């Protein structure tokens, strides 16, 4: 057995629960939420403290072992999955799940990086605060992964991405030194913003072990509406109205095409058509507030204007938590419905909000020309210009052809994205699966600076190598 | 005359208006708003386009000339003032003041870096949008300076610092190459966040020539209140109430001590005591909204609660723009009143919000022990934990002794800041004046990474050398 000396030393340091070496024990660390997998790790380290992470990294460095920091398996770009060669040590922070402190007056919470997002949200709520990051995967994803990927989700429109929600970080650097940047300060302009480099670095510059999160006041009321609209142009116009009319209380404005409503009803039999007639586009929007404002009147005022301008044709309004949860179920079930359709192209692109209608038009034309039997499902976060423009292959297509066919469509789609000054990765990052498309679009000066940053933090190239940038020779 | 060849070549490229070489023409580029000055520049370059900036930087590099990018002279840490040795070229972007584009649907504006903040705000308002950065110096400071210093100001509580308001950047790197990061995307997770490094880099990594700014809907109504409170503890408790009760519509929550109300009345004779009785502490707060909410009722609800709990003892409410401007005049005039008192210690520190009362207590004790005749003026942005804890020397102290005495008090004050896990520079940055205090607090690993970043972007050390970090040997 190779690497036995290293693994024995690591096992001695981390104890029996701290190191998994048997293939059967490691299966749950090799695949992500969507079922993508790469290979088998050398082993899985499960350190229980920052000090154990430090010692794990030091041992890896001593023995030249590559490390893959891993969160909750919902990154979806193979950034935290071990490579096929079986030579990488997965470092899972799942045992580091302590909420270290909450300061509801300072609106901050200090946590271990392995905390599950849902638990963080609940702990905040117990102190009349809110941690506003909201993702489909919030029941399983970890704060460290949210930081490493600069996670987005449903409420970015109002609260920003993870970058805006992190005040302090504690990071074990690739050489095993600890960087203590655990400040609880809301404002701090001392020197270069090291913290910012770790947000979105996908575990390639170090392992985040702790964080100070920024909280908001807890929302005490919400109003949710599912609206039927005639066109994408109407969606965009309603968004502009809603931003103004709902002040800064608009926390979600989700675009849902008719096909997704159908997929949701297929996946969840208890769901029936939400409005009397079908509409080509739906918007699921929500306003929330922490104080005693009349949100209902505010939303009704918006909808009156929207209907007068024929932007909104019909709508269902929720005024209780149960009704709101029912409307959100369409958003959740449509993902399950999509997953049941088997292999398909998932994308995560962004464009300027004003370009959404022309982009969807151009991209749809491209697909219809290239592969008329495919089905397009374009949903997303309107206020972020973030679309998941996904493509389902024809059910009749042989399984063996699907992957290649979808890859070709992706290439063409990304060209349409380029034509609208968009991004091929709005929220999921680069990892391994987006790497070649990313590199093709990187200017020489950007590549040089990116490689310089990687080399500065990780001169030996052992920290999540080959993610974002290719491994160095 | 030294450097004649270089200056002649530069003059040829930039034209007569583009290069100032006479000492008389250069005086306005050597001092900042507070009157601090360092020395005389070699010359002042005033490029009129990004291409001219590129060529200026290339010529500097060719001739080994150090560059000092300069905005509107309100940084206050000598970060953009030329050094005493007369060997640095000031590069002012004041002629690059074009608003390149506004997209009110995407909520973005694209500008030259030399645009004055006030003009940007006005241009946004003309499109029913708002650029929310608000500073005392907004009539003179430039967007490029706001970016380089990651500017803060009055509305950070609600809208964040400049970092949160910038989507894209165009930067001329120290080697003369242009980095085009001018994206209008609200969400983009491709690779390392290069943009973030320039925000707060104080011109040491490159010269920002253009930016895409993120806009908000324009506020169509505002309510302002000036409140009298019995104690700092009451201020903090009211802040917690206000964050919840005013939802996310609270845009300012300024702490003002009694002494500042008096300074304001001294500076502006038309101001009279705003409340019937004097109070030890005042809060100037503002709520704004872009839609049809009842802000007045919201604010009254908060104040009723505040009075019932004896947090608020009295208050003046503004319900018109004129009345609101009158209340804000106290905030502005107190700065002028302070300035008239001559040399004094200005600080810009931050601490956790919950620590404000104990910090002010500890810092005041320190001053009263060390120098009982000094006067303390502690005002600031409560929601950011950002205090300007300033110290006026006794009027009887000989001028020659003041500087040394204030420097000693600053050293002791910073120790109190350290004891409360605070920052010695919340919003103004490091520049030259905060450098030694900054370096004393920098851990070896932080210093190594900061020096590595500087060396990566500026291996020859010609871009604003000696700011943030000392010049390399």
UniProtKB/TrEMBL annotation, chains A, B:
Protein name, UniProt field: FAD-binding oxidoreductase
Taxonomic superkingdom: Bacteria
Organism expressing this protein natively: Billgrantia antri
Signal peptide start and end residues: none
Keyword Nucleotide-binding: no
Annotated FAD-binding PCMH-type domain residues: 37-218
UniProt-listed PANTHER family: BLL6224 PROTEIN, D-2-HYDROXYGLUTARATE DEHYDROGENASE, MITOCHONDRIAL
Keyword entries, A-Z: FAD, Flavoprotein
Family of this protein: Belongs to the FAD-binding oxidoreductase/transferase type 4 family.
A Pfam family hit: FAD-oxidase_C
